[in-house]
User: Fold this.
Amino acid sequence: MTDTDTTVLDAPSATAPSADVTVEHSSDHPVDLGLTLAPLRHGAYDPTFRRTPDGAFWRTTLVRSGPVTQRLVATGRATVVAQHWGPGSREAADGLPHLLGEADDATTFTPPPQARDAVRRAAGLRMCRSGRVLEALVPAVLEQKVQVVTAHRAWRWLVSRHGSPAPGPGPEGMRVVPSAQAWAAVPTWDWHRAGVDPRRAATAVRCAQVAARLEDAAGMPADEARARLEKVPGVGVWTSAEVAQRAFGDADAVSVGDFHLAAAVGWALTGERTDDEGMLRLLAPYAPHRHRVVRLLFLDRRPQAPRRGPRLSIADYRAF
Assistant:
C-alpha cells in the first residue's frame, strides 16, 4: 500500500471549463492513466469513455448520488488532476484514489521472465477499482460467448439509446450508463435490435433487478463478492472475474472459460497451447497477481497461438 495526497483545487484547469469539483491526486508511485483506465473502455466508440487529442481522458459513470462526467489529465508522472461535473461529482472525486488503483499493492509481485520487460515499460499500470458493479456486469454479460466486436456494438447501441446525456462540457455524444431501473425496462425488441440474444438479455435484466444487492458486493472480500454475483442465473466464473477485475480492482481474478485466453497464456509462457486447467497451473505461482500477469503478457497485443481451424464467423442476432 502507498501514501497518497488528494487535494481539492479551487482553481479549475486552464484547458477545460470550470468544474463542479476539481481534485489533484498525487501518489508515491507512477500512474499511467491509459493503461490503468483501459479495462473500463468497451470498444473504440464507447459513449461512456473518450480520449481527446489534448491527452485528457473523459469518462462518465453513475454513482449513488447521481451521474457524473470526469476529465482526467496526468500533470506529472504520479499526479493526476480530475475535474467532475454533475450530481455525483463529490462522490466520484472521493473515489478517485480507488479508480486510479491506489489500493493496488504490487510489492509482493515477482513477474515471470516473459513479462519482465513489460513490467519495466508499464511501471504506471495499476489495477483500477471503479466500485460500480452493474456498470461492469452488463458489458461482461454482453461479451458472453460472442466476438468482442459484437458485444461492443451492442453496448454502444444500448447506452446511446437508454442512457442519459453526460453532464458538463464533455465530448459530443457522450452518455451516462442507464440506471438499474432503465436496464430492467429495456424492451425485448431493443435487445434484439442491439444484436443481443434472449439468453444474454435475460441475464442482464436479472442483474438489473437485483442491482442493489450486487452493488453491495463492492465492499465485500473478493471470494464472497464473486459468490454473490454468481448467484444470479447466467452469471458464471468468467463473468464474475471480468467484473472483479474492473469493479473490485482484483489483481488475481482470472477469466476462466474465455474462448482464447488459456491458449494465449500457454503460448506466451511455454510456447505451447493449453486449456483452462493448464493455464491455472501455469499462473498458480504468481497468485495473488494472476490477472496482473495476464495484463502484462497482453500489454502490446494478445499472444497468438497457432490457429487450428477457420476463424469463427460473427453471428448477427439481429437477423434471427
Observations:
- The chain has a mean pLDDT of 92.
